[in-house]
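pasting Chaperone SurA for the record, 448 residues
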Amino acid sequence: MKKFFACVLAATLLSATVQAQQVQPIDGIAVVVDEGVILQSELDRAVANIRAQYAGRADQLPPPDVLERQVAERLVLLKLQVARAEATGVRVSDQEVDQAIAAIAAQNRVSVEQLRAQLAADGSSFEQFRDSIRDELLVQRLRQRFAQTQVSVSDAEVDAALESQQATGEQYHLAHILVALPEGATPEQIATGEQKILGIRGLLERGEMDFAAAAVRYSDSPNALEGGDLGWRGASEIPAAFAALVRQMSPGQVTDPIRGPSGFQLLQLVDTRAAGQGGPSMVTQLRASHILVRVDDTISAEQAKAEADTLHARIVGGADFAELAREHSDDPSSQASGGDLGWFTRDQFGPDFGAQVAALADGGVSAPFRTQAGWHIVKRTGTREADVGDENERAQARETIGRRKLEEEWNRFLREMRGEAFVDFRTGAAAEAQAADAAPAETPASGD
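structre below
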């Protein structure tokens, strides 16, 4: 979540907002996306934001027409994801948007009012910023829901990953360049893609461009404008088709073109480092049950507190905690088990929740207290010292495998969603390419 808030301030100007029509003079339509639109002013702001991020490094950006097309595609994907989230029942309340904005302001060490003033000074409206935060939260929740329903990791996969990690003992910093191919690509499209990836490989071999600059200029990946950086990954986070290859590479080395499900790729091993070593790790664990009265669009904080006070009075009067949790708790993950949360570390559910549990004696019941989720009543049922070294190692392996699987499935989902959408570019190079019936992509040449 911290990483999300740290980058969302820079990303928000990429968000296309319908409300912009209400706060600005009507301007031209840059792109029609299904039943929505991206205004030319929104596209211009998004391009300007990318140029600002590359201040002093403008030579690393692609030509203006290519940059505009890349940014337009990003906005199209964002628009499609927001629409899918809303159509499938994903909701973000005004209170959650306020909390996100407050967190962004705090991370930038300013107040919300100072943030508002800063946006105004930069020529951005607070309403547009607020809408873009809502869009980012909607997409984040859509991705979380997708992960819960589409991604699973077996114990056998965790065992294999741990065995591989012990064998290699390394993590890998990777970057890539993607030349995308459409679903059911024709032989001509495949030949054009292969010609382009070979041209990019030639530029790198001749030293005419470094890998990050080539990614910014030529890659079709959503992370192209970040230089194709994939970050640090363990062996279990690398697709099996690439893992053996990566282990044989030296830092700085670039693979030959690789044909994958999404197109042709070049993969660079940026650096390597030793993976963290496991071992005994003793921690204090708590066990508790809770009843949650959620605050959302249908119940106010005052109504939720009143219900929590009533439930607390019944518990004090002798009512069974587990029965009340099964009947009244709004936490679906623990409701069926009478509110039981199992064993957890103090800050696992947040510092506020942990502090309330830690302050109780075993068997004690808290007064109602508030967190971002709503109003809680907690009953502490136990405490212990536990060695979680192996448990943490397995949990980390499960998380990394899940993250790799999610990335693969999510990118496939985005490609399918983009392929099924009606997208009509009205201005710029993208419109010209569309009018020319998908003209061939830019092919790098010597001296480009």
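The chain has 17 helices and eleven strands.
The first strand starts at residue 29 and ends at 33.
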